[in-house]
From TrEMBL:
It holds the Pfam family Uma2. PANTHER family: GLR1098 PROTEIN (PTHR36558), RESTRICTION ENDONUCLEASE DOMAIN-CONTAINING PROTEIN-RELATED (PTHR36558:SF1). InterPro entries: Nuclease_put_TT1808, Restrct_endonuc-II-like, Uma2. Residues 15-181 form the Putative restriction endonuclease domain. This is Uncharacterized protein conserved in cyanobacteria.
Length: 198
């Protein structure tokens, strides 16, 4: 079934969730607007997959769950539903009241940047994410070059930004107690810079 969306209509969150169950594609919901999510490139998919595997392996038998691409989350203070590329959630999982498919207690989110979405991922989406008190780390990963921006909550209303731009560097995710080599994150990725594969 193809979801028919009227661009000017304002939808309730209940209408959105009902339509989303019937849809073959994923949509974000932003304060009444339903926005289709575009498909990713092979690099986008592979980087998100690499990160998921690295996190899943490192966090095995620890107090976290890792989700990849299709897990919806809700940000109640701004009435927004979205699907991060990768997210880490503390156990026990907390769901939106009355649902078993929409999470609310994420602590780490990673987005692989696309030209069409990077301004949104850096700006409005980050603003929405940080309204959640459980959210402490944010990764913005470039798919065309080795470039990872790591944002860490250091205090209320205070975030520290670090950048990683070399395969020799190691990303430290202190809130969940693991390290990820940048070379592993970009393993087997065809970069636009000379189409080199790490």
């Amino acid at each position: 079934m193809i979801l028919q969306i009227e661009p000017t209509k304002i939808y309730t969150s209940v209408e959105y969730l009902t339509l989303e169950l019937e849809s073959e594609v994923r949509h974000e919901y932003i304060n009444g607007a339903i926005i289709p999510m575009t498909g990713g490139t092979p690099n986008h998919n592979d980087i998100a997959g690499n990160l998921y595997v690295l996190l899943k392996s490192a966090l095995r038998q620890k107090n976290y769950r890792v989700f990849y691409v299709d897990q919806r989350l809700w940000i109640p203070s701004v009435n927004r539903y979205t699907y991060p590329d990768v997210m880490v959630v503390s156990k026990p999982i907390e769901f939106q009241s009355g649902r078993t498919d929409t999470l609310i207690n994420f602590c780490l989110i990673a987005e692989v940047l696309s030209p069409s979405t990077q301004a949104y991922d850096r700006g409005d989406k980050f603003t929405a994410y940080r309204t959640m008190p459980t959210f402490t780390e944010y990764l913005l990963i470039d798919q065309h070059q080795i470039q990872v921006e790591h944002r860490v909550r250091t205090a209320e209303n205070q975030w520290l930004i670090s950048e990683y731009n070399s395969p020799q560097m190691t990303l430290k995710l202190d809130s969940i107690g693991i390290e990820i080599p940048i070379a592993d994150l970009y393993a087997d990725i065809d970069l636009d810079q000379g189409n080199l594969t790490l």
